[in-house]
Design brief:
This protein has about 210 residues and is mainly β. The protein contains two helices and 17 strands. It folds into two domains: about 100 residues, no CATH class; about 100 residues, Sandwich (Immunoglobulin-like), CATH 2.60.40. It is elongated.
Length: about 210
Amino acid sequence: MNLIRGRVWLLLSLALGVARLAGAQVASGELTGLVTDPMRSPLPGAMVTPANSGTGVVRTAVTNSTGVYTLPGLAPGLYAVDLMLSGFRGVRHQDVRVATGVTIRLDVALVVGNMSEAITVTAATPALRASASLGQVVSEEKVTSLPLNGRSFVTLISLVPAVAVPPGQPFPRINGGRPRTNEYLFDGISVLQPEPGQVAFFPIVDAIQEFKI
């Protein structure tokens, strides 16, 4: 596994079966949305290009016949999202944050004009979280700035509502459940031992970008 900073994600889930079906998707986020004209009619064939501000990695998708685009498997981080279609002004949304295990919805209405006459939205984009799952992401800022006892990320788990780490216990209770019912996924791969609740691998704090419970 790659332990380079900024490339490691961890997810904990009570729904063991659901987590395993999710596979590699849990280590990434998704961007989706609807592209329309000024009359709110869907625009097929629009090109949507998110660029990761930290790594420079670029992805591309094209809206379908109903004007919808979907970009799964995006690494967590900030993105600049460009939308372009012939006959319309280009639009760039800066600082769109993609989080682990979260689907972000970004709808855009294009304005008639030349593609070279681009519109840049520099404020933080008010994208909607379209994911139906219940959970919370603990961000990189908290992982790196908050004091930890023993340099273990487990201490940060108690920041999430309905999660507690009993004194002297190495593993959390989620919604009152037993620690042995938790599933631990590292970059989308289970790190549980055959014995329920026993974890085979814990990443060092410096290797974690963010994690979701």
